[in-house]
# Entry
Amino acid sequence: MTRTDQRTDIRTTPRRTVLISGSGIAGPALAFWLNRCGYAVTVVEKAGTLRSGG
Ligand SMILES: Cc1cc2nc3c(=O)[nH]c(=O)nc-3n(C[C@H](O)[C@H](O)[C@H](O)COP(=O)(O)OP(=O)(O)OC[C@H]3O[C@@H](n4cnc5c(N)ncnc54)[C@H](O)[C@@H]3O)c2cc1C
# Structure
């Protein structure tokens, strides 16, 4: 895993990619921290609109 300095953005190895299925609470939270750790993250969501409850 590559740690990057946001200002200089120098990477020595290609970013590892992660696909997260679901953008409820956990999905975006996990995406945020994985991105902070240098992963290239994609979040997919099957619902077309926001859920009204839960
Ligand atoms: C009516 C209700 C009231 C609640 N009230 C509270 C409360 O007051 N306080 C509290 O702390 N918790 C509350 N909860 C619980 C809280 O909503 C859940 O704990 C929380 O949403 C779990 O988050 P999650 O990201 O793990 O899962 P979810 O929020 O369920 O997110 C999962 C997401 O994955 C998506 N998904 C599923 N399958 C796929 C697929 N194959 N491909 C792509 N996307 C997919 C779903 O559409 C969904 O958006 C409530 C729950 C309900 C149902």
